[in-house]
Design a protein that fits this description.
78 residues, alpha/beta, 27% helix, globular
Amino acid sequence: MHIHTKATVALLLTALFSAHMEARDWFVSRGQQLQPVLDAALPGDNITLQAGATFVGWHKLRKKTGTGWITIKSSAVA
């Protein structure tokens, strides 16, 4: 493998493994869909639900890869 190719592969691997190094904060307000946020959230992320809002239906937090917790809380305690 050429040096240029090795550098490119190393850069791509670094980007893949460090893509979610920082936690993301999500806010779901009244009228928004909750499931897309649950699907997109990764370990370490925080999801805040608007206080008083109702999210009707079945919601599922699917198994995620990685370590850490996904925190879900009300904006009343945020």
